[in-house]
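Hi V.,

You were right to ask for the full record rather than a summary. Here it is.
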Amino acid sequence: MSFLDDIFASLERTESPVLSETYDADTRKGVSRGIVGRDLLKQIAQGRAFLASKNLKRGDRVALLASNSVDWVAADLAFMAEGLVVVPLYSRQAASELVAMMKDCLPSLIICGDAALRDGIVQNWPEAPPQFLLDDVFAEQSSRAGVPAPHGPFDPVAIIYTSGTSGEAKGVVLNAGNLAFMLGSTSARLDQLMRGASGQDKVFHYLPFCFAGSWIMLLTCLLRGSRLTINTDLTKLAEQMREAEPDYFLNVPQLLERMRKAVDEQLWKGGGLPLAIYSRAKSAFMRAREEKKTASVSIWLALANAIIFPAIRKKMIGGNLKALICGSAALNLETQLFFMMIGVPVLQVYGLTETTAICTMDVPGDFEPGRVGPSIRGIEMKLGDNQEILVRGPNIFSGYWNRPAETEKVMEGGWFHTGDQGEVNAAGNWKITGRIKNLIILGSGHNIAPESIEEEIGSRLPGAQVVLVGNCRSYLSAIVTGARSEQIQLAVDQVNSTLPHYKQVRAYRISAEPFTIENGLLTANGKLKRDAIAQRFRAEVEEMYAVKQSV
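Predicted structure:
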């Protein structure tokens, strides 16, 4: 049996809702939709009938461009059940970028979440393959039930695009063996987290399903027969999070850091006894971690645990939470310790799309703050040149779509070269210390190659130098030399107008001193020394993120 057979079997025997969502369209505002396993299978059968009518061949690609929904899940499973290769794309990307990726993989069908997105695709690609709306997939009443098409371990299942340092997206091919291994690993770790609990796991989800880690969480929940509540309106994230009362959910650092800061701000504004207890408890918690525990430390922590921390947990994330799971970028240690202090463990994972999203996972009840846990059983990890993390195992992708030379390069010596620098301690827990590649990973999980954006801004500022910063931050900023503020503002505005929201530059600082070989900010052949620049302008960078400059 394949991983898909196992998911279908789980849906067949799960009589309670496995997915729920809250519509945010004006006509359906506030209406909750839940679907049980067998009804989801019926919807999948409808989708399979639609696909069968299009005379597709096994292995054909189908692009899926839509926001999260029950329909997205049903379509995804229908495509795989028909033996097709799913190409999930981020629907908020610029149409030109989406078209570039689809021209690379040449899908036989394009499924869009709405007409505006479809029209944008056609405008940028008049000769595009047939396009349909997601609603069209389930419009007919005919169905095509039955077991999924067989998948051998090396059969491709999905192509997930990820940005390279050149800015050109590459299609990561994941096969059935990758998925089977990873779903077994993630489910086993969740068994550890939920040990002793009864009934369905309750899970909340807000990250786009087209991201590899988010997709793995979705499929893991379906395999486990969990109840997954899908957030459909980010403006109602906090409200829906509390209503879902999840046991756990997947996060990016940006949200957790925002939650921590919101608690601090609210308590500072309120003042009084709650703030006094909270402030002293924070100091006491840190002293306790440094093994400086005294009677007063115990008293303040006891007061906060009795009065303050339960109220924070309930208001922020409900009263059922067993852990937060965090990946996609480095999590600030202060944020992880904050959640530990209020009684919510944050379990970190590390991986890349090429490793089927995950290489390491924290072990519930036995993890080290600031580290991302041990490698998953069955996966080998070691350090190569320049402390680069190398990975080998059944989670490693088949290769980049139609890019054998690039595949061979990252798989040199039979190990996948991650481009990340790291270290591992005696307990086997890994820590990510930096990136060899120039790729910037925002706190939201978006991967951004800075070169093309820097070049676009620089082309509008003759003689200027531009370097982007923002790794693990919530937005991009820039350090610029050789230009005046009004010139920079105009150039940034012009470039931002052509970019999706997460690639836009939100702040900048001007350096009177240019980047040169002599001052150590350029290499001998004139390339930017990004680490040296980040270190030299550390104060300016911190200032930009402390007080955002509007651009």
